[in-house]
Design a protein that fits this description.
- The structure is a single chain.
- The protein is of the alpha/beta class and about 375 residues long.
- The chain has two domains: about 240 residues, HUPs (Rossmann fold), CATH 3.40.50.620; about 110 residues, Tyrosyl-Transfer RNA Synthetase (Orthogonal Bundle).
- It is built from 16 helices and seven strands.
- It has a seven-stranded mixed beta sheet, sandwiched between helices.
- α6 packs across α7, α10 packs across α11 and α12 crosses α16.
- The chain starts with 19 loop residues before the first helix and ends with a helix.
- Bound molecules: iron/sulfur cluster (SF4).
- The site of iron/sulfur cluster has 13 residues, from α14 and α16.
């Protein structure tokens, strides 16, 4: 695999990606076809939130013929979860319902070795327990989950083996500056995606991982490694999320900036405050908005509904009515705040119930 220096997307950065066409062309991604969207019947596909893929046809064939495939994703436990993470988990739960073999990594080692803000493993584990309780509340079961720091030797020996297939020059070409922590985290991430196909686990079969476009360097390198391994495995498939951007203009939802995201631990009041000051596609005055309509395409409030509101017809109705000037941003923010408040209340009650199970899994007691 040849990677040019200007092909870098920073997987650890906070920049928002808007130029999808450029990225599709540069990286050779395929747009997600409409016929699959219709077949999969899930809001993330129907609403164009999943925008691209690499080799998803292999997984699609498995889903159509009701045959198993590997469903693998994970969360680096480096902070609290926000609505962007919820979309990732919702996708995992969807595939779980399609006869998948499920592997959900709680990446505590990855978080500790690659993030400066995680000073010790105890902090990574604290976030891991919190993140896992949320994931369980969103539909995961304990049997779907593994914690990196508790994985068996086979997983770790495999991760080290992968190091032989990557040069430092390749790492630097993809990620720019790298250090030993980021290299270690990279090896664990490649092992997370590939190890389920070893004979000690589920064995060879197509696998799917949903990622953001900024994670594509990981995907390309993982696919490249898979083709050069001596093990007989399928090259993994990936599907790509359109970004759920940050609440402020020009930002990505980030765990390190509380004002860019609604966190799953936020109170209803805190979430309402963030929604009320979010960037919208509204006009300068109410009269102008009534006359010219708003622009939901750039609106962060509409994006919340697009990603998370369960009723697609209602989301479409709000979109159309915004454009015709039938909604004012004040009313729309109120509607969205009520929806989010209701979700957070029910979700947080479930998290409370799931927390003892999550702690037992993360601390192995
Ligand atoms: Fe956004 Fe709603 Fe205002 Fe339209 S009415 S710009 S969707 S907040």
């Amino acid at each position: 695999m040849v990677i040019m220096a200007d092909e870098r997307i920073d997987p650890w950065g906070n920049a928002e990606i808007r130029d999808y066409a450029h990225i599709f062309k540069e990286f050779g991604l395929s747009a997600f076809p409409g016929e699959w969207k219709a077949q999969l019947k899930h809001r993330l596909f129907e609403r164009g939130i999943i925008i691209a893929h690499r080799d998803f046809q292999k997984v699609m064939q498995r889903i159509s013929s009701k045959k198993p495939f590997i469903n693998i994703t994970g969360i680096a436990s480096s902070g609290y979860l926000h609505l962007g993470h919820k979309a990732d988990i919702d996708l995992f739960v969807f595939f779980k319902g399609c006869k998948a073999k499920n592997y959900f990594a709680i990446s505590d080692i990855d978080a500790y070795v690659s993030r400066e803000k995680i000073p010790d493993m105890e902090t990574a584990k604290k976030f891991a327990a919190d993140n896992l309780a949320h994931a369980l509340a969103l539909g995961l079961e304990p049997k779907d989950v593994y914690v990196q720091s508790q994985k068996e030797p086979r997983y770790y020996s495999f991760a080290f083996e992968l190091g032989k297939k990557i040069t430092q020059a390749t790492f630097e070409a993809i990620y720019g500056h790298v250090d030993l922590g980021k290299i270690s985290a990279g090896l664990l991430q490649y092992a997370d995606i590939l190890h389920p196909q070893l004979k000690e686990y589920s064995g060879k079969m197509p696998s799917i991982t949903g990622i953001g476009l900024d994670q594509d360097p990981h995907a390309r390198l993982t696919r490249d490694i898979a083709q050069r391994l001596s093990y007989d495995i399928e090259v993994p498939s990936f599907i790509y999320f359109r970004h759920q951007s940050g609440l402020k203009e020009g930002t990505k939802m980030s765990s390190s900036d509380p004002d860019t995201a609604i966190f799953l631990n936020d109170s209803a009041e805190a979430a309402a405050k963030k929604i009320s000051s979010a960037f919208t596609g509204g006009r300068n005055t109410e009269a102008e908005q009534r006359q010219l309509g708003g622009n939901p395409d750039v609106c962060k409030v509409h994006e919340i509904l697009l990603f998370h509101y369960p009723d697609s017809k209602e989301v479409k109705r709000i979109f159309d009515e915004c454009r015709k000037g039938k909604w004012l941003c004040r009313e729309c923010k109120q509607f969205t705040s009520e929806f989010i408040a209701d979700f957070l209340k029910k979700h947080q009650a479930l998290v409370k119930k799931k927390m003892p199970i999550a702690q037992k899994i993360v601390y192995g007691k």
